[in-house]
Amino acid sequence: MSEHPILVTGATGKSGRRVVARLRDRGAQVRAASRGGEHHFDWTDRGTWDAALTGVRAVYVVQLDGTRLVRPFVELAARRGVRRIVLASGRGIDDPHYAPDRTGARPGILDSEAAVRESGLEWTITRPGWFAQNFSEGFFADAVHAGELRLPAGEGAASFVDAEDIAEVVAAALTGEGHAGRVYELSGPRAVTLTEAVATISAATGREIRYVPLSVAEYIEELVAQGLPREDAEVFADVVEPLREGRDAHLSDGVRQALGRPPRAFGRFAEAAAAAGAWQG
């Protein structure tokens, strides 16, 4: 498949852009596809699908939550000669008690997993937990930058996984052998509380960063006071529930299974992000 480009959807996202970089470091041809990236691709515009798939044999699928678009996309991919699919899924998706699902995203993600399994192609599914990069470029980033992270997470812990590890697993599955039919549950090497996480970032940056635990009601009211619709605030509170309840503290060995090495520690992520200026300015 080396003479064919590899399609990466979501190529400007946290995992996608790192997958693009990993593949190009390996000398692979990459079609970096997204709504505003190198190659225009829009999940909601099926007219963009054919051009994205033309000539490719392997695809990294970063799905659009709340939709059931992966199944028709995979079916088209198979008709266009694609042989290998790597799907970005999520930890706990197979557990209906893992987190509340007010938005109804879970059935669509489960259908996406079923679609790749039933496709007849070589498939791999990645199920990462909380990204360590949520502290530097995601859900928690603005608060950490401001010096105070206020969340209804108690002293729950999560085994935060470095997106660099996710990208390396995906690149291996797209280009190597031995990954077909595998579901890789991805985590870091140790569960970390938010108190520990911000202390680690503080040490890496030389700045004081505090974690302030809130009740769910306090958190929702703060977001509403900042102008967020109450329904959206409640969804954000739901997202934190697995962390608060310790449901994401368990360790998974997907990184070792895929790469033959342990996952990167949270401290290594914090040092790299600080060196890159993630929390400066």
Description:
The chain is of the alpha/beta class. It has a domain at 6-131 and 162-186 and 250-263: Rossmann fold, CATH 3.40.50.720. Helices cover 41% and strands 16% of the residues. The strands form 3 sheets. The chain has a 7-stranded parallel β-sheet with strand order 3-2-1-4-5-6-9, sandwiched between helices. The protein has a two-stranded parallel ribbon with strand order 7-11. Helix 3 (70-79) links the parallel strand 4 (58-62) and strand 5. The longest helix is centred in the last third of the chain and has 15 residues, at 230-244. The protein starts with 5 loop residues before the first strand and ends in a 6-residue tail after the last helix. This is NAD(P)H-binding protein. Residues 10-175 form the NAD(P)-binding domain.
Describe this protein with a few key phrases.
single chain, 281 residues, alpha/beta, Rossmann fold, 7-stranded parallel sheet, two-stranded parallel sheet, globular, Ergot_Alk_Oxidoreductase, NAD(P)H-binding protein, NAD(P)-bd_dom, NAD(P)-bd_dom_sf
Secondary-structure blueprint:
Elements: E1 6-8, H1 16-25, E2 30-34, E3 39-40, H2 49-53, E4 58-62, H3 70-79, E5 84-88, H4 105-117, E6 122-128, H5 134-137, H6 141-146, E7 148-151, E8 157-158, H7 163-175, E9 182-186, E10 192-193, H8 194-205, E11 210-213, H9 216-225, H10 230-244, H11 254-259, H12 266-275
Parallel strand pairs: 1-2, 1-4, 2-3, 4-5, 5-6, 6-9, 7-11
Antiparallel strand pairs: 8-10
Domain NAD(P)-binding: 10-175
Pfam families: NAD_binding_10
Protein name: NAD(P)H-binding protein
